[in-house]
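assembly run, all chains below
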Amino acid sequence: MSEVLKVENLHVDFNTYAGKVKAIRDVSFSLEKGETLAIVGESGSGKSVTTKTLMGLNAKNAEISEGSQLLFKGQNLLDLKESEWQKIRGNEIAMIFQDPMTSLDPTMKIGMQIAEPLMKHQKLSKEAALKRALALMEGVGIPAAAEHIDDYPHQWSGGMRQRAVIAIALAADPEILIADEPTTALDVTIQAQILKLMKDIQQQTDNAIIFITHDLGVVAGMADRVAVMYAGKIVEYGTVDEIFFNPQHPYTWGLLNSMPTTDTQSGGLQAIPGTPPDLLEPPKGDAFAARNQYALAIDRQEEPPFFKVSETHYAATWLLDERAPKVTPPIPIQNRWAHWAQLKGNEA
Amino acid sequence: MVKYISKRLLLLVFTLFLVVTATFFLMQVMPGTPFNNPKLTPDMLAQLNKAYGLDLPVWQQYLHYLANAFTGDFGTSFQYQNQSVGMLIGQRLPVSAQLGAQALVVGVIAGLFMGAASARNKNNKIDGTLGIISTLGISVPSFILGIILVYLFGFKWALFPVSGWGDSFSETILPTLALAVSPAAVTTRFVRSEMIEVLSSDYVQLAKAKGLSDKEIVNKHAYRNSMIPVLTLIGPMAANLLTGSVLIENIFSIPGIGQQFVTSIPSKDFPVIMGTTIVYAMMLMVMILITDILTAVVDPRVRLR
Ligand SMILES: Nc1ncnc2c1ncn2[C@@H]1O[C@H](COP(=O)(O)OP(=O)(O)OP(=O)(O)O)[C@@H](O)[C@H]1O
Ligand SMILES: [Mg+2]
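ok done. output:
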């Protein structure tokens, strides 16, 4: 496997009248070719800001601090000029937006909207770009595409529009595809179709996907690896199985417990009590401590470093320190751990 | 499309009929008479009234007017004796319409550019300066601007002629500018607020994510979308401009229709009042029809039915 993107020590602040909102506080992760990395976390945890930063699309009041690095093909994207960013956007890194009802231009033919990035990045003529757009429309499963290439967005359903948005993102065959809650605005059956489409496309193109969601339910079928974000930080990351069946961070436990499942079940749904901290004044120590029933005294003093669980699995919680008392997680998590032990037993 | 337009034209004729009727009866309740020269003897007055059919009952006058109007005869002016209203308007309307059309084109184009520039530079110096300019343009009456233009360009720098009509194009420049300022300012403000909204829309974000430059985004996506609501503004604006401006026509001694309409009211020149009202109403409705058609052309979501 080869690495296509490496994010190191990313810090993003927003200057507001109330002060600096510390939206991203030291985020690091890497992305391999052909893999899907899911970023999960509650609303406001910084998922969208992280990915907008990768596209150079942050709001004007954003401030990215000096030491941050976004390494893509040997260069730090943060050093790019606007004109250089334009060569990356939609070409090497593309994005699928959340709401297909509002993300297409209502006054432009859909075929043209798909052709646009091709004319821009591959310098295709209008005819050639439209021809390619037709192929892309067929590729994303738009029925009778040739008849609909001159349609306008209002003539299409949400699911079809999201396929068009995906076709736009795929047009220039990007190495990284960012999907920020691509199915939240769609109903459940359409959701499943769109997710399957993304999976199928990935198999053909081998692009890397960053998949953002606050719905852990869709992560299981989609992702290879998961990063859990809380209050502008990644608090735990690992493979899908590691996060689902061997979670270590109490915040991850909370997320898993608040997710409806059919398999490892008992105990019912539980939302995480409390609210995320104010990012104008992030708390000292572990930002999750105030909502964490397993919090230790040190959590309020000092920020936990990442503890290694396996080669691929890390979690930032003092519970993993060897001096920490052994705690018993909630029963559903115990069940998940039991399942994990079974999996491991089978492997051995 | 053809069906839609014929339907709208029918509606236009019906509305026109209502306007004619309302105006006709409203004129009857205006105090005074058209013939108020103190030298006129009662005999002469009676004769005049008879000649113009004013001795008949109102409903008969009304029916006569309608019947004549249908054949294209809008009567003879009381003020300018022996001049038919059709001729008066026919001579003067094209002058006002040309001036108005020039001002409309200049004003709207300037407004589009300034509005877009303002929106793209939201809250910085350029936006602030354009904001001040457009506020001035809206609040300073066009005749004051006209006088300033006459002073600067006509006398101080002597670049353009300051009055007259029909001899050269340069005569039209100053009145066009004076008349264009207010529509330019109104369009600037409107385009600015529309474009700010469009520029923060999801589809503009997506266009950015495609790798388009700001300029490409404005030209390919933002203009078209901000234009749609602007069109509804331009219809009435056009009707207003094409039917002449009294003050500007006075300042620049332009033989337009605006002046005539205003003098026709105190002198109770009924046929001229009626004629110009019809022209105004028709112009407004035709302009709105045109902008509706244009809106349907620009906005695929709008269907003409
Ligand atoms: N332009 C901005 N100015 C100030 N604060 C901002 C700005 N953009 C984002 N933020 C703040 O940054 C934090 C992270 O926001 P972000 O949009 O990344 O959340 P998210 O994880 O994507 O949430 P959601 O699930 O609701 O989409 C939030 O606290 C948000 O209020
Ligand atoms: Mg978000």
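Chain A has eleven helices and 13 strands.

The longest strand of chain A covers residues 3-16.

not gonna interpret more than that til we talk
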